[in-house]
Each structure stands twice: as C-alpha cells, then as structure tokens.
C-alpha cells in the first residue's frame, strides 16, 4: 500500500456525508474535527494525508493535494508563473469509490506534473481563487487525458462534480486541494466553497509550518556537517574510528562534536563534546568551541587547565548555552592517558584482554558554568587497549536510562577483538534501534 494513497469505505458516505442541506452547526463541527486532526506533526506528507482522511468520504468521494515541487525539495516559495503552469507533486490522494485502483492509476501519488492553464487546476493556481464545476463535461476529461497520456482519466472525470481550492500562505500559492464527487453523488454547491476554502487555508498553514521546520532542520544539519571534521588526521600509533548521526528531528539537532588533535612529543588529544541546545544556534556554538579547543590544545596544556580555559571561552561566547566535554591526552612514549571531564559522561576503556569498564573520571562543571578547577584522571593505555568517548544520544533512550545504556555499551565492547570500524557499526546498530533519537557522536581510539 502506498503511504500517500488512502482507500476509504464508500458505504460510509450515506452516513457521514455533508450535503447542501447541512446545518451551520454540522459544518462547524466538521471544521472543528479537521482542526484537531490536521497538523499533528510537522511532516508535510503526513499533514496532507490527515486532511484527506478528514475530507473523504465526509465531504467528497475522492480528493488529492498537490504541492509545488520546489517547496518540497528546497523549502522555498517558488516563483508562480502568471499562467499557473507550475511544477507540482501529488503528495496524497484519498478514494471512497468502488474502483479505487482506477483512481490510483489515473492520479498516482508522487507524480510531478505541470497542469496546463486551461484546466481547472491551472486556473486555480493562476488566479489564486477556488474553481467550482458542478459537473465536468467530457471535454475536460479528454483534456486531462491529452495532457497526461492516460486514457482512464477520460472515463473517470466526466459527470463528476469538481472543486479545486488553491493552498495560500504568506501571499503565495503552495499548490492546490482538489475534491470530486462522482456522478452518483450530489454535486458541490456554492455553499460548499467557503467550507473548502477554510479547510484549504488551515491546510496551507500546516504545510507552511512543515516547510519552515524542514528548512531549519536542513540548515542546522548543513551547518553541523560543515563544522565537524571531514577526515581526522590520526597518528600511526593510534587506530581511530568514529560515527556521527544527526538527530531524527529538529528538536534534537544539537551541537555534538568530536576531534583528534596532534600534539607535540608523540602525543594526541581525543575530544568529544555536546552543546546542550538545539538547532542552528547550538551548531554554531559547537563550531566555536571546537575551534577554541584546537587552539588551546596547541598551547600544550594539561587536560584540566585546557577545560578551565575552554570554560571561560564558553562563558564569553553565549551565557545562555552550556556544553559538556571530555578531553583525553594520550602519551605514546609513556603509554599513559590523561583525562579531564566538564560534566561529560564517563569514558569507557577496553583492556587488551577484551574487558570493558567505565573510567572513574570525576566530572567538573559543564562548560559555561562557574569557575571551579577540573581534576585529572590518569591511567595506562597499553598496546591493544581501546578508549571509547561518546555523547549521551548513544546511551540514553526511551527504553532505558543512562546507567542501563552505559551497561549495555560496556557489554557490547567486551569480547574478542574485532575491527575498530566493525565495532563502531555494531554499537550504533545496537544502541539506536529506532529513528527517534538525539544526536550521536562516537569516537574509538585503539593503541597499536
């Protein structure tokens, strides 16, 4: 079943159908029901399905929603040609008829087309006004067949009552909302126009909100991606693998980051951080903190001193945003690992024998809060041992709390040695089974 193609029971028309004799109270009840059911999410396609689920068969036998293609692909208002010949995509259709698959063949979901200006749909887009045709003549069906090359359209449309309303938002035509009643049903009347226009107006607002949401999420993801390392430069004495997964929605798109920084004297810094905001602002703060960390690392500071100075930088950047960060410095010659934490989750160390456990790093205050010093934890990192740094999106979920997530992570890391990239993939698959998640950053570093 196509997700945008709704098949409704045609037998329910007699019981649910609003007719020309419907009272004002019945029509207001219809609009109230539509208001509660439309726009439950900020997903454009879901919104269109919700609209048609309300309208068919309660108001029409079939219906469809077309949205301008550029608005879907780019999130921008397209330039509307004066003749209405705009590229539009059929986002959803609904059918309450005995032959639903004929309608799907005639008007397939996902089709991207241009409606000629002489067709009612093109007229509605060009004039930004509703078009009502009480009964479609055969000539209109033939014109549709000629325009789209499907003979079945000429058999379905003639005799239907036809109502098409433009979807208007911010003075722009987003697309159109089309409803049809078959020849066996009562035709649309002038009294129906106001009702459809109200429904179209509410639909357009929801579609525009979905457009803005999608555009902001794309912007945040693009900014995030541009500020994260594209290719980490790793020293020959460390094997490094990493994974970064953006959040599943805008509310979760934040400022997770990771880095591997070469230091003097065969030493390497390993960094993972998480800005506690969301959207473009958090991504921008993340980029600033990552740059500041790289600059401070070049001064060859101990991890506690580096985080202390980074905390001061964070307070100067934005007093309303805070972040967590863990900074580890690996000394190849000494075989040691020095770590300091600014409110971050504990690193996990996997011993050469394959046993994983949390490191007892005492977390100091998050970046952007207070002026307390940070403490340093030191441990050995022998050949074959591996350090895991991560953000909370990896270990926190709806099904478990952070402690349970940490236990699961340690269990996954415990066992016979595997390739480090394979370990990354295994952890991400196991810890993130569904699409509803926060940002995730995972950095693994194995001494060789």
From TrEMBL:
It catalyses: O-phospho-L-seryl-[protein] + H2O = L-seryl-[protein] + phosphate. SMART domains: GAF, PP2C_SIG. It comes from the Bacteria. PANTHER family: STAGE II SPORULATION PROTEIN E, STAGE II SPORULATION PROTEIN E-RELATED. InterPro entries: Bact_Sigma-Reg, GAF, GAF-like_dom_sf, PPM-type-like_dom_sf, PPM-type_phosphatase-like_dom. Residues 238-447 form the PPM-type phosphatase domain. It holds the Pfam family GAF. GO terms for molecular function: ATP binding; kinase activity; metal ion binding; protein serine/threonine phosphatase activity. Its EC number is 3.1.3.16. Keywords: ATP-binding, Hydrolase, Kinase, Magnesium, Manganese, Metal-binding, Nucleotide-binding, Phosphoprotein, Protein phosphatase, Transferase. The keyword Metal-binding applies. The keyword Kinase applies. Primarily acts as an independent SigF regulator that is sensitive to the osmosensory signal, mediating the cross talk of PknD with the SigF regulon. Possesses both phosphatase and kinase activities. The kinase domain functions as a classic anti-sigma factor-like kinase to phosphorylate the anti-anti-sigma factor domain at the canonical regulatory site, and the phosphatase domain antagonizes this activity. Residues 43-217 form the GAF domain. This is protein-serine/threonine phosphatase.
